[in-house]
Amino acid sequence: VVLPTESEAAKHAITPFHCHSNPEESVLIGGRRDLLFRLDLPSLVLCDLSSPMLHGMTQENLPKRATRVPSIVVPPQKVHLVCFLMMMIIIRSCHSFRSMVRRFVGRSPFLWHHQPPQPIVAPLFYRTRSFSSEESLPTFVPNPLAGNADTTSSLLPTNSASTTKTADSDDALATQFRVTAPFEPTGDQPKAIAELLTQLGENAQEAAVLRGITGTGKTLVMSHVIAGLQKPTLVLCHNKNLAAQLARELRAYLGQDSAVELFVSYYDLFVPESFKETTGRYVQKKSVINHDIDALRHRATRSLLTRNDVVVVATVSAIYGLGLPEEYLNASVEWKIGQEIYPSPNGNDDGDGFFDALNRMLYQPVDSDDNFEPGTFQHESYEYNETKSSSGPIRKHKITLWPPHERFPVTITADEHQRTIHNDTYFTIRSLEPGTQKGSIPTQSLRIFPARHHVTSSGRMEQACVAIEEELQQRVDELKAQGKNEAMAKLQERVLGDLYMMREVGMCKGMENYSRHMNGREAGETPETLLSYFSSRFGKDEWLLVVDESHVTLPQLKAMYFGDQSRKKTLIKHGYRLPSALDNRPLKVDEFWKQVQQTLFVSATPSAYELEQLKQSSTGFTQEPVDMVIRPTHVCDPEIEVRSPTMLRDKGSNPMNDLAHEICQRIAKNERALVLTLTKRDAEDLASYLNSYENKALDSAMVELENTSINATYLHSGLKTDERADRLRALQKGEVDVVVGVNCLREGLDLPQVSLVVVLGADSEGFLRSETALLQTVGRAARNRHGRAIFYAERDTMSMKKCMDVTNDRRKKQLAHNALHGYKPRSTKGSSTMTFFDLLRDEIEAEQQLEFTKGGIDKSSSPHLTLTKVPLNLKDSKKTSIPTDHIPGLPGVYFWKDCDGSILYIGKAVKLRSRINSYLAPNANHGKRIETMVEKATTVEFVLTPSERDALVLESNLIKKHKPPFNVLLKDDVHYPYIRASVEERLPKLTISPYRPPSGESKSRFFGPYTSFKEINQILDQVEETYDLRVKSLEAGHGSGSVEEYNELFQKAMKDVFSSRSTAVLKELRTGYEEAGLLFDSSFNSCRDIVAVASVEGDDSDIVVHVAQLRKGYVAGQFSYTCSIPREAEKDSGIAESVQMVLEHRHYRSGGEVVESWFPDDVLTPVELPDPTSLRKTIREVRKEVEPARKGSITIRSPGKKGPRQLVDARALEFAKSNAIQAAQERKHQRYPALKTSMDGTATKELAEMLKLHQAPSVIECYDISHTQGEATVASRVVFREGRPVPELYRRFNIRTVEGIDDYSSLAEVLERRFKRAGPGCDEAWAAPDLVVIDGGKGQLSAAQQGIARVHASLIPICALAKNHEELFVPESSSPVNESTDSPAMLLLRHLRDESHRFALKTHRAQRRRSMGR
Predict the structure, then answer these.
(1) What is the mean pLDDT of residues 1126-1150?
(2) Closest Cα partner for 578 from 665, 704, 476, 686?
(3) Exposure string over 491-504, b if 16+ CB within 10 A, otherwise e
(4) Count of beta carbons in the 10 Å neighbourhood of residue 831
């Protein structure tokens, strides 16, 4: 008889078991389903279907070995009757009993599918069978035992295509955990396994504690418990290192058939958003995602949704929001061979389009193999000619998609068809090919899960936006009532910007802070986490929680919530977030335990909390921790020795040398060591010291160790997850002799090669040197039979004493046990040195080596492909109308703006024109965010910078200032780092600071900024190589060196590297990297206007005066003014007067129309102004009108000539000058515009065909003869190159030999004089053109030919454009050669002629001004 719970089974078992002399052979009553399958079956099985463990079990789907015996289903109210019945008839034959059962069932009101009483709660869905990962996602089948409950609240997947069972199939609920370890449990392991299975299985205890010391094999015990209970399991660890190691070991013990997955935080770098009230400093979230770890997270959730035999090893990341499981499931899409689907939503299709489905699942398109990674897809289309098709070529599409939950990409091919009835386009799927390591395997159907766990439907998105708007209005009213206008404005700006992005592209920066609205939760409601996936899939009672190293992991669970809430309440208070951000949070402790039914705590040093859980169990059984003291290897706990640094120095040694000698002894035995320091910097410095250590023999006992080198490395939280695992593996393999760390070398590390553990500063009482921490640390040497621990301390603290007492007690027990049984200790070999991340890396490399074409169809195997690749253009309208020809290929920062002038996006580029054109290319393949931005943009503006470094810093500062809605940085709120010299400390040092604090907040000195950590590390490495500061600091700090000598060395390094008067090579390296700081980080440029002057090409009298406004690290504005210099004025004085006039009467006078930041504290000009006092007076007067409260002097200065100011001024003027030259170029283009068809080659190609030239003309000259009131005849020449005016080559000719007005003779003279200068060696202005154009008809054309023929043997191609009817004539043709007057070629020629008229008119005006002056 199988009953719902073990407790109920025990209650009903009392009477039957005592009413028969041999109950073991007659009646078996229990509450565990595995009893039915794992023990010898009796001749009769009666089972109660109200048991939650047996939902869906009927006569048809019992295991095949159970169907040989009679079986009936009994409702719970009949249990006592059945027990009594079994006692009465147990002595009868099986045949007679079968007959009685048949008669009994025939008269009874209960049958196989009897509805259980209402109080018994059944899951709403049941699984009808297990299924493999290759099968399609199962559908959901309502459980007939669940009554009329709401069928949408819980989803348990099943496979509807396989609900019919065969005689050979396994039970639907039976999981398949099997321990495949190559060794049997030994030591205390068998006893621990049996006790835990009894407590968690038979007794159904809610909690159990496994208290096992290091090296006793707790992981193997854990594996046997999982296999014995046959429950899906969540294993919680407290850091990524241990999670990776534990996942590796569980995979080895449970075999490859089970799914052992890893679920840890996917951030390589994460700094949460925060606001510090004491300093007023706001820090945006900084994050860098590791996509490999993200792929593991997807594999974990996919295994939870598709398998029963799954173990997920997770960190506390499991208690953070993960999105709704049903949203994740509903967002998935299944495609089948032959399925018709629209590429985009269509009125005739009720569902999403193909590409819209990918977009909804958050897959990003990429156009480069370099960017192809999980969560992206590539798309290409080709014309494909069928050999026997008469309907013409077929457009084939190939989509290569990489789901994060798959090891390899999948390939989807489809044919494009046109539906004539509705005049629309649709796809027919022709092949679905999931990738494998050996290629791809075709399949009939394929289900794709989303690229991210947070998925929101479009309908819910709009509902969320409305809810956010309502909350914003409520919060704005609250802040307004409190008088917090600044916080109110800040909050409105941020939230409205986020709503804009969410509606436009479906996401925004910090979108997780709106998770409550996105998921439709109420305020304070429990968020969805990884635990929700367990509960939704298996039910609350059907999975097991294992808390590894529970003494550390459980405090983390509690601390996560309170730390998160404290930080966010401060953000809400100051207007950075809405109150709903509080619901983007980890689980509370009580919320966590409400979702967990059964827990196994595992620790060598369990805390009082775990032991208290045993007492609070409701099962009624006496519960004690399960202890493991004896190791399978019989290794005893290490001896502990305390050494005093003072006593070592008295003996002529020091702690550093003593430590190095101990490590050398381990190296000689091929053993390893761990050293623990108190800070990360000490760990790095000590590793550097040990690497440079040269061992010297101090006595005869050390001679064999002389010249032994040490290979050391450090390990701490500053390293990336996979880097930490790599360094531990290197220690295991012997590539590293010693690892120096802080807090990452304690719990759970399987390092049997380590025989020495050293704790520096063991007497520094605190968290890192507590009793628990010291016990765990000492335990790292307990896997090696030569294990030993050394504490460097001046005194014995209470924690040290307790640690040594506990260790000595264990050691006595272990020694006694070994002596009693004659065991000899042996060091373990440990598990494989390949970490879980190594396994992942191998898979990734295999994926990258796949022999399939990711970028398109392999043409070598498709002979019918055309030569032209035709990418699918989802957007019919591209922003090709935005002009970019004036943009230079120089470094700078660009701004995309909409029709209202609002900044949409800010970026930087090494070559501005190429970068901006990449957005507008017809085949550009951007993500939805950039696509939306380009669609909205109407203009693009830019600022030139002297170098790429300047562009990086300026881009960062501008983004912080303007907060464009479409900017999403990899590291939000990037701060470029500085070198910090902590001169105020006893032992000053050089470190990296992510930012420079406000003036007066720190006594340290800061140098920078630097645009990359590579640059700053190169400088610090060179300093360290030259001065050895870090090692000297370590020695001085631990008494091995002099503090005074170190400070003298530090001051020398500061003088050599950072002094402005230094000539050292290191200073040149530093200042080269700090060049960007000269412009955008210097205090000289904090509120400064920089003036530059540039000449307009083609007009000697015109100049551009350019004013660049620098304000607190960013460019606040740029303004250009064009003015003319009188010809009679001297050039320098004329420029100075023009600058004075522009600044005083035009630029600063216009400041009355704007708000603050228009007026500077300092004006830097390239020339000395005639009257700077007058300019200062003007600025002060206008500033007083706009900013009456602003005080302070105004300085007008010329560039500095020495010291730091000289470098800053030179850099600033270089910056302003480059932008002034660009403004002059744009002024030139405005004055001399060019037609688009002239520049793209269309016009010149047509002209070559019209004039029958061999090639399109590149350089074209046009000549015109003009008069002023019948006198002052002047000839003008204009030059076009590549369809664009070149005004610097324009020339005018005074007529010398012709009297009166004779246009023909004048043309002949001018052309003769012009081509006399076109001989070999002439300069560019007089080189022969590709074509000559004459303004006139046939007569002018003939005269020009005669002039050219006098000096030039080979005639130059020539034509004439008559203005009356816009007719084009060529030699030896009496009729015009043009058919149209508005073709691209004719428009180019007319542009040439009009430009020659304009230039001639300008010449006449200049002559009149000169004559009037005379």
Answers:
(1) 78
(2) 476
(3) bbebbeebbebbeb
(4) 17
d(C-alpha 1394, C-alpha 1278), whole Å: 10
Which range (548-562, 592-606, 1131-1145) has the least confidence? 1131-1145
Tokens read off for 651: 């003996």
Confidence band for 115, pLDDT divided at 50, 70 and 90 = very low
Cβ–Cβ under 8 Å, residues 1193 and 1161: yes
- Of 541, 597, 596, nearest to 52 by C-alpha is 541
For residues 297 and 453, the answer to whether their CB atoms sit within 8 Å is yes
Q: Which amino acid is at 493?
A: E
Most confident of 152-166, 736-750, 982-996: 982-996
* Residue owning tokens 């061999």: 1254
Compute CA 653 distance to the chain's CA centroid, rounded to the nearest angstrom. 50
Class of residue 510 by CB neighbours under 10 A (exposed 0-12, middle 13-18, buried 19+) = middle
Query: Rounded mean pLDDT of 653-674?
Result: 88
Q: Which residues contact 1411 (CB under 8 A, 6 or more apart)?
A: none
Scan for tokens 């931005």, then name that residue.
933
Helix (H) / strand (E) containing 1348: helix 1338-1351
Residue 858 per-residue DSSP state: -
Measured CA to CA in angstroms, residue 477 lies from 572, 731, 1132 at distances of 14, 60, 60
- Alpha carbons 320 and 1261: distance in angstroms, whole number: 72
Query: Which tokens sit at 1336?
Result: 């006139």
Can you read off the two tokens belonging to residue 637? 């706990």
pLDDT bin (cut points 50, 70, 90) of residue 27 is: very low
**Residue % of the chain over a pLDDT of 70:** 73
Give the whole-angstrom CA distance, residue 1346 versus residue 1369: 16
Q: For position 737, what pLDDT does the model report?
A: 92
E strand segments, 402-511: 410-419, 424-436, 439-440, 445-448
| Torsion from C-alpha of 129, 133, 456, 365, nearest 10 degrees | -160
Contact 576, 494 (CB under 8 A): yes
Does residue 26 surpass a pLDDT of 70?
no
Classify residue 1195 by its DSSP letter.
Answer: E
Q: Which of 1392, 1359, 1362, 1399 is nearest to 1281 (CA)?
A: 1392
Q: What is the pLDDT of residue 543?
A: 92
141-182 pLDDT, tens digit each = 333 323 333 332 222 233 322 222 333 333 333 457 888 888
CA dihedral 537, 543, 547, 548 (to 10 degrees): -100
- d(CA 72, CA 79) in angstroms, rounded, equals 12
Instruction: Assess whether pLDDT exceeds 80 at residue 511.
Output: yes
**What is the 8-class DSSP label of residue 1097?**
T
Where does the pLDDT of residue 213 fall: very low under 50, low under 70, confident under 90, or very high at 90 and above? confident
Alpha carbons 878 and 1013: distance in angstroms, whole number:
38
Beta bridge partners of 419: 424
Report the Cα 361 to chain-centroid distance in Å: 17
Closest CA to 775 of 211, 213, 221: 213
By three-state DSSP, how is residue 1260 classified?
strand
Angle (CA) 176 179 185, round 5°: 150
What is the average pLDDT score of the chain? 76
Neighbour count for residue 1107 (Cβ, 10 Å) = 25
- Averaging pLDDT over each range in 297-301, 957-961, 1001-1005, 1176-1180, which range is the top one? 1176-1180
- Of 628, 776, 777, 554, give the one whose Cα is nearest residue 210: 628
Take residue 927 and report the two structure tokens written for it: 């993500």
CB under 8 Å to 860, separation ≥6 — which residues? none
